[in-house]
């Protein structure tokens, strides 16, 4: 099996059916998708397993493979076990969990609490045959690759691993040299998020950063992919189209830019990897 590329389904906010989701993914050229388990989407953490099954069946019928799932849960609980059980039995093996926010409390206390949660999730991942993914994200205790590696250190990377995201580090916080972070991540790096960032002038003056089409941003993805290649990374990718307005999947302009991101990323992969 070759490299798998899916897309982060946040753009599906306000899209009420899995039929619409699969139609959009196919128009953009995606063979794989992720199941976003969140309020305002087709299923959430409290949805019964029967609702998950309906979404899974529609994706399968329409020829889109559910490769991963995304939940904002980040600790063992009844709903987490329901999700892991469902996904494990259907080959949806990459489960991105929720963030461990930095609240201003003692970092050591937050770190220790997250470690307890992750040890519990490691046990569940082994039980249900899935892999838990922890994404580096701004505003969290693991905003960089190096901090994420520290959080995961000693856990089995086949069960709990890193979701590496250069875009989050550049847009929010946690930026560090790409090659260094990837080197530090080591064996824990098992999935890579792809999105780009640009500077823009705010209406009230000053500058800020935001997400933009992949080819237009300030992250040099040839450099990132080169560092991944040098590290021996042979895993899969998830393209994030976060600059697209929520629920705009029926607009041709949305399809065009999302398809453009995928096509451009495939070009980069062919050139670098």
Q: Given the C-alpha coordinates, what overall shape results?
A: globular
CA-based gyration radius: 18 Å
For the residues shown, what is the average pLDDT?
95
Distance between the termini: 16 Å
Question: Which CATH class is shown?
Answer: Alpha Beta
Q: Strands of the largest sheet, in order across it?
A: 1-10-7-6-5-4-3-2
Low-confidence stretches: none
Overall helicity? 40-55%
Order of helices and strands: EHEHEHEHEHEHHEEEHEH
* CATH architecture label name: Alpha-Beta Barrel
CATH superfamily: Divalent-metal-dependent TIM barrel enzymes
**Beta content:** 15-25%
Present the secondary structure layout:
Blueprint: E1 5-7, H1 18-28, E2 32-37, H2 49-61, E3 65-71, H3 78-89, E4 94-96, H4 107-128, E5 131-135, H5 145-152, E6 160-165, H6 166-171, H7 178-185, E7 189-194, E8 196-201, E9 207-212, H8 221-231, E10 236-239, H9 252-272
Parallel strand pairs: 1-10, 2-3, 3-4, 4-5, 5-6, 6-7, 7-10
Antiparallel strand pairs: 8-9
């Amino acid at each position: 099996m070759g490299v798998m590329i899916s897309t982060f389904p946040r753009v599906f906010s306000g899209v009420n059916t899995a039929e619409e989701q699969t139609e959009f993914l196919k128009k953009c050229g995606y063979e794989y998708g992720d199941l976003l388990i969140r309020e305002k989407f087709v299923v959430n953490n409290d949805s019964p397993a029967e609702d998950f099954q309906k979404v899974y069946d529609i994706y399968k019928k329409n020829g889109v493979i559910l490769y991963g799932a995304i939940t904002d849960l980040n600790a063992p609980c009844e709903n987490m076990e329901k999700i892991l059980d469902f996904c494990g039995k259907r080959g949806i093996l990459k489960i991105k969990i929720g963030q461990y926010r930095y609240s201003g409390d003692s970092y050591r206390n937050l770190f220790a609490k997250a470690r307890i949660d992750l040890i519990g999730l490691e046990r569940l991942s082994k039980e249900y045959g899935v892999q838990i993914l922890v994404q580096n994200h701004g505003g969290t205790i693991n905003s960089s690759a190096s901090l994420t590696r520290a959080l995961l250190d000693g856990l089995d990377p086949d069960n709990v691993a890193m979701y590496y995201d250069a875009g989050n580090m550049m847009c929010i916080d946690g930026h560090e040299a790409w090659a260094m972070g990837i080197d530090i991540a080591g064996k824990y790096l098992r999935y890579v998020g792809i999105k780009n960032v640009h500077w823009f002038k705010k209406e009230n003056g000053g500058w800020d950063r935001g997400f933009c089409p992949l080819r237009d941003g300030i992250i040099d993805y040839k450099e990132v992919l080169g560092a991944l290649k040098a590290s021996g990374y042979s895993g899969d990718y998830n393209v994030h189209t976060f600059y697209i307005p929520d629920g705009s999947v029926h607009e041709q302009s949305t399809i065009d830019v999302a398809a453009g991101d995928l096509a451009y990323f495939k070009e980069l992969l062919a050139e670098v990897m």
